[in-house]
TrEMBL record:
This is Chaperone protein DnaJ. Signal peptide: none annotated. CXXCXGXG motif repeats lie at residues 152-159, 170-177, 192-199, 206-213. Its cofactor is Zn(2+). It comes from the Bacteria. It comes from Acetobacter conturbans. Zn(2+) 2 binds at C170, C173, C192, C195. Residues 139-218 form the CR-type domain. The lineage of its organism: Bacteria, Pseudomonadati, Pseudomonadota, Alphaproteobacteria, Acetobacterales. Belongs to the DnaJ family. A zinc finger (CR-type) spans 139-218. Gene3D superfamilies: DnaJ domain (1.10.287.110), Heat shock protein DnaJ, cysteine-rich domain (2.10.230.10), Urease metallochaperone UreE, N-terminal domain (2.60.260.20).
Length: 383
């Protein structure tokens, strides 16, 4: 089953992105994955091609509007020009030019998408899959179960009890599935009222599907979710939606990815942030700590003496996966210095001795000393 990621996800932007922000996102990614900067990296080269393909479509207002309406199908229906077949001159939508574009864009108001022989195409399905942050990092295969309409095997999708023998061409529309009516200067097409757009009339409907050609069934499908997906990513599986009956294309399945929040990590694009508490003495004297990494391993971080609460330490290449690439972002460890609680009598005595000596040594707490020096100047009217 081939999956093709949303062009907006490829460029790491939302569907509401402005033209200027789209251009900035493209330039940033194109520079990052340019072959000249990633010599010999096949994954980077593939990612660079995806980025250019996505931007070639979304930078053009007309192509973008068609993509928002039809998805990747807008560029594969006719196999014409552009990024996979989009051509307003008459190639991208089956050779009919603007007439076919308007027919597809406004087809839902006149009976929806249609397959061969006037049959209506199957409906699209929307579903949501929830994954953990670790699964988003590594990629995962998820089984989804859904109720959908599938091809009726009893009547071979014809809707007739006698299969093909029980199906006649509609005498009103002569199999076209639509009729034309003159309204002033315009000719308007509508679904045929006799056959409801099917183009055929069934004399004796199938007992299982009742003439529809499809039946409801619970179906389980495996969906491959690539490493590096973000929360809100939408994956389109062409032809995995509801069946449209014999001679009509099936709809598409749209899988919306929801990534759970983590108790240990916070994600920002390809970077990971982790807050690690350390004791006051560790921060003052310096230490070495072990921290968890998103891939399930551990990493050592050296904490120098005199570290202040909130300081960050960078671990290169320990961050999140980059979509469709072997690269990884960075991990940032933020240390939080904890104030000790529930002290024993001896601990209190030691801290009192420390405080007494520290009060006489300005260098031990420079920020503390500097702040109260400025307060004193302010109160005395010097600051």
């Amino acid at each position: 089953m081939a999956t093709k990621l949303d062009y907006y996800a490829v460029l790491e932007v939302t569907r509401e992105v402005s033209s200027d922000d789209l251009k900035k996102a493209y330039r940033k990614l194109a520079m990052k994955y340019h072959p000249d900067r990633n010599s010999g990296d096949a994954a980077a080269e593939s990612r660079f091609k995806e980025i250019n393909e996505a931007y070639d479509v979304l930078k053009d207002e007309q192509k973008r509007a068609a993509y928002d309406r039809f998805g990747h199908e807008a560029f594969t229906a006719g196999g014409g020009a552009g990024a996979g077949g989009f051509d307003f001159g008459g190639g991208g939508f089956g050779g009919g030019g603007l007439g076919d574009i308007f027919e597809q864009m406004f087809g839902d108001m006149m009976g929806g998408r249609r397959g061969g022989g006037g049959r209506q195409a199957g409906a699209d399905i929307q579903t949501q899959v929830e994954i953990t942050l670790a699964e988003a990092f590594a990629g995962v295969k998820k089984s989804i179960t859904m109720k959908t309409r599938v091809f009726c095997e009893t009547c071979d999708g014809t809707g007739s009890k006698e299969k093909e023998a029980g199906v006649e061409v509609c005498p009103s529309c002569h199999g076209a599935g639509k009729v034309r009516a003159q309204q002033g200067f315009f000719v308007v097409e509508r679904p045929c009222p006799s056959c409801h757009g099917a183009g055929k009339i069934i004399k004796d409907p199938c007992s299982d599907c009742r003439g529809v050609g499809t039946v409801e069934k619970t179906r389980t499908l495996d969906v491959a979710i690539p490493a590096g997906v973000e929360d809100g990513t939408r994956i389109r599986l062409s032809g995995e939606g509801q069946s449209g009956g014999k001679g009509a294309p099936a709809g598409d399945l749209y899988v919306h990815i929801q990534v759970q929040t983590s108790e240990l990590f916070q994600r920002d694009g390809s970077n990971i942030y982790c807050r690690v508490p350390i004791r006051m003495a560790q921060a003052a004297l310096g230490t070495e700590i072990e921290v968890p990494v998103i891939d399930g391993g551990r990493a050592s971080v050296k904490i120098p003496s005199g570290t202040q609460s909130g300081e960050h330490f960078r671990l290169r290449g320990k961050g999140f996966s980059v979509l469709r690439s072997s690269a990884r972002g960075d991990m940032y460890v933020q240390v939080i210095v904890e104030t000790p609680q529930h002290l024993s009598k001896r601990q209190k005595e030691l801290l009192e001795e420390f405080e007494k000596e520290a009060g006489e040594n300005v260098r031990s707490s420079p920020e503390h000393a500097g702040f109260f020096s400025r307060v004193k100047d302010f109160l005395e009217g010097k600051g």
